[in-house]
């Protein structure tokens, strides 16, 4: 099949990673894939299929080639995708990588976008239930996966200082409020006060670090070590040198960094974010708390003090993460694709 993916950006991030992984793997199994970007669209992932750019600025229906299926994602790609579909350029399917109305600006527009097509794919049961409750549409679940580049490098040494790490994203722009990064730093600082022997690593996409004055100020703070991985190999190394990985996000349909860190052998301490219930179970393979419990630092300290528990959770997390592969996600995507196309024929 010929599939067109209209995409705003392929900069580093969980949603963009999923688009890149699916597009590449669908291409590998024989589909003809075109990724359509704005004229100034950024591509930071390796892409093994056609990249096409809008003629002028933002995407318009005239930029779309004729295909079998148009796969929209973020709410700003949905309306133009439906217009192109109405012009006969393909069946419109939405792959909703987040549920935007609850936590992003312009929510009246993003809420209305869910009425434009009933062909819907989602990432988790939590997201599926929210959309069905609000819009009456039950999306088909296509879960996140973990790239094989992420693996436990077995570089942790007992004599080394304990490393606690977390991902930080650019706060400017209004797209990171759900990550609760002020709370994250507050909790990490508390850990450092009580356990000064622990190293705190902040993992930041290099492009966002270069753009953000807020993130750059952290470089001068002697409490933190800043890591700016240029690629997945470096990111895998930073996950693998972490004894404990921390996630403070309260609203994620998938939450990729947590499961990637688990795959690399880090013990996960996380706030419940909805989608991370697909792979995280408190006391089984991670420590998970609700935000109102204000327990993130306490859970980190529990694992600092209890190496047996830390290692048990890390081993179980690494084992459980093996169930999440992009090959499986791609197969489920293709199954849903065939079903929707058959239904619309």
UniProtKB/TrEMBL annotation:
Signal peptide: none annotated. Gene3D superfamilies: Glycogen Phosphorylase B. It comes from the Bacteria. Pfam families: Glycos_transf_1 (PF00534). Residues 177-319 form the Glycosyl transferase family domain. InterPro entries: Glyco_trans_1, Glycosyltransferase_grp1. This is Glycosyl transferase family 1 domain-containing protein.
